[in-house]
Amino acid sequence: MRHLVKIACIIAFVASASALGESELFMMPKEQKAALSSLITSLKAAKSSIDIAIYSFTNREIAKTLRDAAAKGVKVRVIYDESSNEPSNANSTIGYLAKLKNIEVCTLKGNKAANGKYFGIMHMKVAIVDDSTLFIGSANWSKNAFENNYETLLRTTESALVSKSKATLADMRAKCREY
Fold first, then answer.
1. What is the pTM of this model?
2. What is the Cα–Cα distance from 85 to 112, expressed in whole angstroms?
3. Is 7 part of any domain?
4. Which of 44, 73, 99, 174 has the greatest count of CB atoms below 10 A from its CB?
């Protein structure tokens, strides 16, 4: 009987661990190479979709990885902050990616302040690969963020976090302005 109880406990543990998924937290700048490698490796491995909301995106290596994924038929959707379209943000990847097949680009601003005098910003840094892997953290997708800044990047396959992020990105896309 004890043997069956132990087996039941092991099965319950394995089931709960798989529901929680796998996670890895990168602390930059110390783990900058591992963080960038994890993100790019996941983007390259995408089979069907990559959904992104990113405040500032100037990293050309990541942009080229998205280009290559789209060329393989992966559907790529990127939500940028509205300021990405301003002349002062000339290094943004928005114009480059918007021209490519299988890539949808839109801009979004934050909500109107209670006093009605200004709008917030779309400040997220989120990516979801194949509806199963979530990247979230403080790091913008810039060379500086991955090389010099103190930033965080979490990669997780925890289904509840992926689902919540996916629903939020869908709500945001509904409010986006096509680029």
1. 0.87
2. 19
3. no
4. 44
